[in-house]
């Protein structure tokens, strides 16, 4: 049986994540007192339920403190479970609460940001224990549903397989909060300052060729590939299921995109389950930009 514990920050998307899990056949329970987790796990196992998920968060009040005791019980009983933690930036969480005209559960009479800060502190340990962390700051509902299906759907890779996402980003928009490994490629000559290349992105052949032909790029990719070939099998051995490799340049449009694509291609050719995402490739787009 696959047993998922869904938790995370209020407003980060736990409700939508639960709906998505239900859509792919999970038996879902919302806001269960953590002390009852072992009972639910035993009932699902005995009832031939193949996929189950439960939502645990700070709505449980004082009962939330029983979570780690219940997790310890599951571990001693050799009952396998996964923790999915949903996160988001403070700015986006505040915006979501204001749009919904709701107060924060930990700050019902005060500022939303105070509740968010208190909740982050309370959830720090469970986040550290999470198997999968999804940052929903830039996700629409359909994007989150896609992520849930990717990690927990029937087509998910075998249990000990690691899902690797190579993510390009721009430092001026912030480092992705769900990054496991972050690499700064701003030491590579920047196509932005070459007039005939500025209008393209790292997805386009002129920029791709310029960036990948640099000797600094070749040395970086060779060393990074060697390091990842060492790290990934060890991550798999330790049971890690998600790896976010973030590669950043200034704006996330030229160097990081070209290099992320190259790293993704190398990992795919080496047989790893690799995906590619470009977070900020469109942030600096102006009207009339030519696309090859």
Automatic annotation (TrEMBL):
SUPFAM superfamilies in the record, alphabetically? P-loop containing nucleoside triphosphate hydrolases
Residue stretches making up the RapZ C-terminal domain? 163-281
**Domain RapZ-like N-terminal, residue spans:** 1-153
- Keywords, in A-Z order: ATP-binding, GTP-binding, Nucleotide-binding
Give the residues the record marks as binding ATP. 8-15
Q: What is this protein called?
A: RNase adapter RapZ
What InterPro entries does this protein's entry cite?
Answer: P-loop_NTPase, RapZ-like, RapZ-like_N, RapZ_C
Instruction: Name the NCBIfam families for this protein.
Output: PRK05416.1
Q: Which Gene3D superfamilies match?
A: P-loop containing nucleotide triphosphate hydrolases
**Keyword Acetylation part of the UniProt annotation:** no
Sites where the protein binds GTP: 57-60
